[in-house]
Design brief:
With about 350 residues, the protein is α+β, with helices and mostly antiparallel strands. Helix content is about 65%, strand content about 10%. It contains 12 helices and 5 strands. Strands 1, 2, 3, 4 and 5 form a 5-stranded antiparallel sheet that branches. β2 and β3 form a beta hairpin.
Length: about 350
């Protein structure tokens, strides 16, 4: 037992002696180690700068309004053969919106939207200028005007649009911040700060526009039909009322039954047209009220603003890691060299 304890003490002393020896060795080579650290850190900084892309992050939080059309309007509009205002109230809840916001339809509409009232400066064209200069020169990618019909796209335009959509899907992240509260967070990353900001704002706008198109698009169509019908009824009512006045003028002082029958028919038609006019006006006002009540679908809580947070490049982090690797590598080299020479 005593011999074992003594052997352990000898081993500890030998280890400590080695630690002291190596410490002195490294201390004597401190300037060389510092030079290796600076050299490796510089190489790491340069490597990170030229190989790692910086990304800007646009973060938007919002709530989804879930509304349904009024039953009163539906019953009144059905009198004239029109569908009820409003659509499926659950159309844009939860996962549905998360899938929709990454769909090709929404991405294309966002990229090709008439940006800043300039159809030739949409986000798609700006993206090409920033990322596809070589493809533009080679004719593999071409600009698209916002005024160009979707059916008129060339093969190259379809191909480049699909390629951009594929890249953007990977840069879009959307999830619920709070499952109970229903707050949704949309995160978009991109290499161009201004483009990323504009894209995130237009993306939500296009989602809202599509919601309105689907949910109250039929109500808008019904409104146009009812307004046209109202104009027709009012013209017919005016003409009939003028006819009644003419009948009364012609029958003044003449005691005959026949003119009275004609006038009574026109007076009855006036009553019918007047009732129809009142109901149409009522339905039109209710439709307008319902359409206004359906908007907006998205209530934005926090919007991204410049400057956007910048991440991904990490030049200082890369320099530090490379510097430490150079320092420890040089230390190991000096220690190994000393042991081989001893």
């Amino acid at each position: 037992m005593i011999d074992s304890v003594r052997e352990d003490e000898v081993d500890l002393k030998a280890i400590w002696a080695k630690v002291v020896e190596f410490s002195k060795l490294l201390l004597n080579a401190k300037w060389k180690l510092l030079a290796w650290f600076v050299l490796a850190a510089s190489l790491g900084f340069i490597y990170t700068h030229f190989t790692k892309d910086a990304f800007f992050t646009s973060r938007t939080t919002f709530l989804i309004e879930e509304k349904t059309g009024g039953s009163g309007l539906s019953s009144l509009a059905s009198q004239f053969g029109f569908g009820g205002a409003g659509g499926d109230g659950n159309l844009f809840t939860g996962e549905n919106l998360m899938l929709l916001i990454k769909s090709n339809r929404i991405l294309e509409q966002t990229l090709l939207a008439n940006y800043q009232n300039n159809p030739d400066s949409n986000l798609y064209n700006q993206y090409l200028v920033r990322n596809y200069q070589d493809e533009i020169k080679e004719g593999k990618a071409s600009f698209i005007s916002s005024n160009l019909s979707r059916d008129a796209f060339s093969r190259a335009q379809d191909s480049s649009l699909a390629a951009i959509n594929k890249v953007l899907v990977e840069q879009i992240s959307i999830d619920k911040v709070d499952k109970k509260a229903g707050v949704i967070e949309l995160i978009i990353t991109g290499q161009d700060e201004q483009w990323t900001l504009d894209f995130s704002r237009l993306l939500l706008k296009e989602c809202s526009n599509l919601y309105l198109e689907i949910k109250i698009g039929k109500s808008m169509q019904n409104l146009v039909v009812m307004e046209n019908r109202l104009d027709s009824v009012q013209r017919q009512l005016n003409n009939t009322m003028l006819g009644v006045a003419e009948e009364m003028d012609q029958s003044l002082g003449i005691i005959q039954a026949k003119p009275k029958v004609s006038r009574m028919k026109k007076e009855l038609q006036v009553q019918i047209l007047n009732g129809l006019n009142v109901e149409l006006i009522k339905n039109i006002e209710l439709t307008k009220f319902t359409i206004e009540r359906e908007q907006p679908v998205i209530e934005v809580l926090d919007v991204p603003r410049l400057p956007l947070p910048k991440t991904g490049q990490g030049r200082l982090k890369g320099a530090l890691l490379w510097g430490l690797a150079g320092f420890f590598g040089a230390s190991a080299f000096f220690i190994l060299k000393s042991q081989l020479n001893s």
